Amino acid sequence: QVQLVQSGAEVKKPGASVKVSCKVSGYTLTEVSIHWVRQVPGKGLEWMGGFDPENGKAFYAQNFQGRVTMTEDTSTDIGYMELRNLRSEDTALYYCATVSTGVPLSFFDPWGQGTLVTVSS
Amino acid sequence: EIVLTQSPATLSLSPGERATLSCRSSQSVGTYLAWYQQKPGQAPRLLIFDASNRATGIPARFSGSGSGTDFTLTISRLEPEDFAVYYCQQRFSWPPLTFGGGTKVEIK
């Protein structure tokens, strides 16, 4: 079964960048692909972006266009999400989650444990 | 963008009672809808996919129904571990993928 382990908590200043990693085990990044979901403390789930499992193209939510880059390293089975020009409103838990590749987009199963990113001056 | 509206925002019930949660879509999503459970301090967990299919390891007391724009998650008899927040999500049209705002099932 797929297991996801994310990198540890980060504290960043406004204007900085953060890069969160998500290590896949049990499967490879040729068999699954990664999406990222954000959750502001006490609030709901917000999809940030991810890869089309049929063609590998990355898609981003409009709210993050121009500030986010998602990549997958198939040699290490690690996915990355980089968010730039951080502001205080980006303080949130960032989750990775996987979908199967080679088929139309499925639902997220499983999820990583989450990475807390705090943006504070 | 497809908007998912969940109701009620909070459901106060006792263990053993039946829980009925609603998710309404701004346009038809066929049966391309999932339900997730999130407990405090934990990541979401997939419960139901494609409207009515239980994910691996999910107890039979959880069931999903609906199609088009109206969906329901039913928990037949609430166990103590079922008190959590539940989210619906559509994959019919993306980007973006969208989630509902969540329903909190709390102990009465």
Q: What would you note in describing this structure?
A:
The complex is a heterodimer of chains A (121) and B (108). Chain A is mainly β. Chain A starts with a strand and ends with a strand. In chain A, a hairpin with a 4-residue loop joins β7 and β8. Helix content of chain A is 0%, strand content 48%. Chain A contains no helices and 10 strands. Chain A has strands at residues 3-6, 10-12, 18-25, 32-39, 46-51, 58-60, 68-73, 78-83, 92-100, 115-119. In chain A, the strands form 2 sheets. A 6-stranded mixed β-sheet of chain A has the order 2-10-9-4-5-6, with no helix packed on it. The model of chain A has no long low-confidence stretch (mean pLDDT 96). With 108 residues, chain B is mainly beta. Chain B is built from no helices and 11 strands. In chain B, the strands form 2 sheets. In chain B, strands 2, 4, 5, 6, 9, 10 and 11 form a 7-stranded mixed β-sheet that branches. In chain B, strands 1-3-8-7 form a 4-stranded antiparallel β-sheet, with no helix packed on it. In chain B, a hairpin with a 7-residue loop joins β9 and β10. The chains are: A mainly beta (121), B mainly beta (108).
